[in-house]
């Protein structure tokens, strides 16, 4: 049960990061999209910490 909830939270974070990155005007948008897709949890966290302005 806990793993399912944790997995759902990671999925929501991943989707939010991907949508936010696609909508942004970040000049490194393609790089961030690749990072978010290839490393879902860490890429999403890094995007929200470092990629957003």
Automatic annotation (TrEMBL):
Predominant location: membrane
Q: Which domain of life is it from?
A: Bacteria
- Name the UniProt key words of this record, in alphabetical order: Cell membrane, Membrane, Transmembrane, Transmembrane helix
Its placement in the membrane is given as:
Multi-pass membrane protein
Show the InterPro entries listed in the entry: CLS_N
Q: Where is the Cardiolipin synthase N-terminal domain?
A: 12-52
Name used for this protein in its record: Cardiolipin synthase N-terminal domain-containing protein
List the taxonomic lineage.
Bacteria, Pseudomonadati, Verrucomicrobiota, Opitutia, Opitutales
